[in-house]
Each structure stands twice: as structure tokens, then as C-alpha cells.
Design a protein that fits this description.
The complex is a heterodimer of chains A (213) and B (392). By secondary structure, chain A is an all-alpha fold. Chain A has one domain: MetI-like (MetI-like fold, Orthogonal Bundle), CATH 1.10.3720.10. In chain B, helix 10 runs antiparallel to helix 17. The longest helix of chain B is centred in the middle third of the chain and has 18 residues. The relative contact order of chain B is 0.12. Chain B is built from 17 helices and 16 strands. In chain B, strand 14, helix 16 and strand 15 form a beta-alpha-beta unit. In chain B, the strands form 4 sheets. Chain B has a 6-stranded mixed sheet, sandwiched between helices. Chain B has a 4-stranded antiparallel sheet with strand order 2-1-4-5, covered by helices on one side. Classes of the chains: A mainly alpha (213), B alpha/beta (392). Chains A and B meet through helix 5 and helix 6 of A and helix 3 and helix 5 of B. The structure holds adenosine-5'-triphosphate (ATP) and magnesium ion. Adenosine-5'-triphosphate binds next to helix 2 of chain B.
Chain lengths: 213, 392
Amino acid sequence: MSILGFLDKYGDKLIKAIGVHLQYVFISVTIGLVIALILGILLSRVPKISKIVIPIIGVFQTIPGLVFIGVLFIYLGMKPITVIIALSIYAIFPILKNTYTGIVNVDESLKEAARGCGMSNVQILFKIELPLAMGAIFSGVRMSTIYTVSWAVLAAMIGLGGLGEFVYRGIDTNNKVLIIGGALPAAILAIILGLFIDFIQNRITPRGLKGGK
Amino acid sequence: MVSVFLENENDAIDREELYMIVYENVSKKYNDVTVVDNLSLTINDGEFVVLIGPSGCGKTTTLKLINKLIKMDEGTISIDDKNIMNIDAVELRRKIGYVIQQIGLFPNMTIEENISVVPKLLKWSKEKCHQRVCELLELVNMPYEENAKKYPNELSGGQQQRIGVLRALAGEPPIILMDEPFGALDPITRENLQDELKVLQKKLHKTIIFVTHDMDEAVNMADKIVFMSKGKVLQVASPEEMLNKPADPIISNFLGKLSFSPNGNDLTCADVMKKKVLIVPETKKTLECVALMKKRELNSAVVVDVNDKFKGAVTIENIREHGKPGEMISKILDTQIETVMITTNAKEAFDKLIETKADYLVVLDRDKTVAGIITGSSMTKALASVVWGEEN
Ligand SMILES: Nc1ncnc2c1ncn2[C@@H]1O[C@H](COP(=O)(O)OP(=O)(O)OP(=O)(O)O)[C@@H](O)[C@H]1O
Ligand SMILES: [Mg+2]
């Protein structure tokens, strides 16, 4: 089947699937980001505890998505919220870890200079630590986004749409074109979103933090 | 070029308050190692105190105890008779300028933003912050237009260090702590900034505590040198006294290359004087003279008559206080300037410099024309050249 033929037959469905997919990614990365920022900041206040806590959270990351969604599905049923919760939880960790490292890696002498100027801890956080951790936070977001795009494929497993639907139906019916028709847009989506995040990062990073790093 | 800065700041300082800093039996330990050992020290209001000593002797720690960046284990420090334990750390730090050893400019902020950190914390108006940044940048000869919007990584090391100093000055604090602020500067810039800082301090009556490794710098700047070793104060003395009568072998050792040496006896003023002097004829008008001084970044000029013979000197302050625009500088000339002959023995000249407490001596040729000047830094230069041979 030619590309045009494929698009002709499945074009509408494909666009709808990309829309659903993007929704999953956008909502879960946003939720993940908010939670990760809050946790990352809190953990950066207590580095001694964090050295133990963060690896433990990291273990969750290694539970296969399939198992996790499966378990959630049993408790929460076949609703979009199941997918969102699962994906959000997966999105948290890369951002959390990067936020934490980004903050604790801020040069001690800069924090001391800030304290010496008479900044309060909150001021140091918002004026110095977070701006300097921004690069690390962005790469966490990029990582989470790209992962989430591929994990969202699993959503189709419980019949909730997205590009995974193509993949699963393709597998079911042994239709290679359908598999590729779902997998390829997902890959392209991941690349485009990654570039988009780079673009935003580039726009908001002050000149003083670019280059040389 | 110092002017704008000085005039504005004079108004801002509340002269009723005193800022005497007193350490009483202060100790600080890390684990079991005592890094500041039962230290007692009084720093008078408006004094320029230099902490000096070998690396690791506790200078930075001693400094950071004042603005509570480090908590002491024992003893008390009081500022203006108030125990710092009873002052909120954040409030305290906004009143104490601090230049950290590692410069520590915020890389995410422009130069303007870096300098105005403390003024903003003090909730100054936007215009006032901006004006302050302009004044300060002008002070170190870094025009606002060229530099304010740059980021720290776009400046040279020396420029960064200047901005670090400006950031500490910006909030008009009565006390300034400086931890090797000129460490990364080339010798010329370093000497310029030292001179600027010294003038500033005299005029503004700021209490400055300045840490250095460098005896030249200490002698140049200090009213009082505090020599530390292994967390203890070994000697507190004026620069001259410390050079002449070091109280401990460790100090003499440290000074080694700098103390008066018998070999220095054959040096004359010609060997040690500064030759780069601003000389103006007495017929110059006051404003022209000020312009010349600003251009050369100098605070004073030596004045000569039509035959180039020495007449006296003028300072920028002098002109500002007594001079009228359009007047010739001969009217306000200070003729009571100490002079020496170019053939005078250098040590004699230094003794005279110390005795008369003058800022400098004018060195004259046999025909009474001006050959150069001798300042405190010529003194250290001379001492260094005795040990190391001719400089450079
Ligand atoms: N946080 C710390 N933990 C343990 N030891 C420390 C700590 N900070 C400083 N020290 C030790 O305390 C001593 C004094 O340090 P300090 O920084 O005051 O020295 P310094 O005189 O400023 O040295 P330098 O001239 O090299 O800057 C040093 O021996 C140093 O190793
Ligand atoms: Mg130090």
C-alpha cells in the first residue's frame, strides 16, 4: 500500500489518534512536571534524605509500563484517567531527578554570594537555584516527553485510543502497514516534541547561561 | 571620576551611627580542628583593616563570622555594641557588603542585575537602582552602555572582579568585607583599584575588612594589619610597625622578602619613585585640571611654574571645595607638600613619608623640576626589588 493510499484510507483516524496521543502526553507531562518540581525542590532542601529516597523512587521507574497500567486498570477501570495517572507517574521521575541534581549542583560559592547579599532561602531558590537548574530541568522534561510518547502507545492496550491503536490492530491482524502507520508517527512525534522543547529552552535561557556548558 | 559616587553617597550615610566591630574570645571548630582560636579583635569605625596570613590560617572564616555565614562555637561578635546573635541574619547581610573569594557573580543575571541585587532587596526604586549602577560602573571605568547588559561570562576576569566589588558597594553598606577581591587582577589594574578603594574609604568613612595573601597590598591599603596564623592573631599593628617590628618569627618569615634589608641602603629615590605623574602648569584653569585628572584616573596633580619648577600640588577634593570655575589653580595650590631630592637615600625618604604621614612625597631634580613621586607602594616595590632584583 502506498503512503497516499494509507493516508486515504486511515487519514482521519490517524489525525484523531495523533490528537488523542498528544493529549495524553501533554496532560501527563504537565502533571508530572508540577509534581516533580515540587518534590525536586523539597528534596533539594534535604540532600541527606534524598540520597536514599531518590534511588528508591528510581526503582518504580523500572516496573514495566505494561504491568503498571494493567494493575491500575484493575483498580480504576477502563477510563482515560487510568492512562493519565500511569503516564504522569512515569513522567515524574526524569524531571524530579534532574530538578534535584540541577539545584544541588549549583555552585556553593554562588549560593554563598547570594546569602551574603542578604537573600532569604526562598529568594535564593527562585533567583539563583532554579534559574541555574533550568537547563537540567529542561532535559528532564524532554526525556519525560519522549518516553511518554512511547508509553502512551500502551494506552491502546486497554482500548483507549492513541497511535497505539494502529500498532495493536496491526499486530492482531498481522498487518505490517498498520504497525508502521502507528509506530512511525509516534517516532516522528517524539522527535518534533523534543525539538519544540529545545526551541523553548533556547528562547528563555539567558545569554549568560548559554555556550561553554 | 570618583566624584559622582562620593557626593551621592555622603548624603546616604548616617554619620550618627558607629560601626565598631568587636570580636571577643571567638572560636570556631570544624570537627575537632580549631580554625579560629579564641580570637579577640577590635575594628574601629571607619578603619581599613587587612587580615593577612598564610593560606588556611582562618582569614575567610574570621570574615564570614561577621555576616553570620559561619556560626561561631564560642565567644561573641558585636557590631555597634549589638551582639550579632540578636540581629536577623538576612537584615544584617544587607547592611554588610561582601565580596567573596571566588567572585561569585550570578551567571543568569546581567551586569546591571548583578550590581543591583542588594538595592533591589532593599526595595530601592527602579530609577535609584539604575542610577546607582551607572555611577558604580563609571567608577571603575566600565561605561554603562558597553557593559550593563552583558553577562558575567562575557567579561574578562579582571572586569568580573570589579563587578564583584561594585555589587558589594551597591547597597551603600557601612561595613564591607572583602575576601581577596583583587586576586585575579593584573598588577596595574590591581594598583588602580587599590588606590580607588583607599580614596573611597577615607572619604566615606566605611569600615572595610580586607583579606589578602599579599603583603604589598596590605601595606598599601591598611590602617591596621592583623596577622593571623593557625587561627590565632599574632600581631595587630600599623603597616610601618609590622614591617619594622614583626612580633613573631612567623611574621618575619612571611615578610622576609619585604622587610627592610641592609642591602636596600644604597637605593635612592630615583630607583623607587613613580615616574608617571600628572604635572600641570599653575596657570591651568580648575575645570581643565579636573578633566585631566579624571582622564588619567588620578586624584591629585603636581603643579609647576612656567619654568617647570615645582610649586605645589592640588587634589580633586581641594578644587571641588575651594576652586571656582575659570580660576587658575595657582590660587588654591597646596604649597606645603613634602619634597625630597632625587639623590636622597630611599630609606630616608620612606622614613620621611612615614613620619609626616603624607600620602606622597614629590621627588625633585637638582634644578627643582619634578622627577616623580614616592608613595606607600613605591616603598613595597623598593623592598621587593631588594630581594628579587629589579622588578620585571
Ligand atoms: N566547611 C569546612 N569544613 C572543614 N574544614 C574547613 C571548612 N572550611 C574551612 N575549613 C578549614 O579551616 C581552615 C581555615 O580556612 P579558611 O578558609 O578560613 O582559610 P583562609 O585563611 O581563608 O585560607 P586561604 O588564604 O587559602 O583562602 C582551613 O584549614 C580549612 O581547611
Ligand atoms: Mg580564604
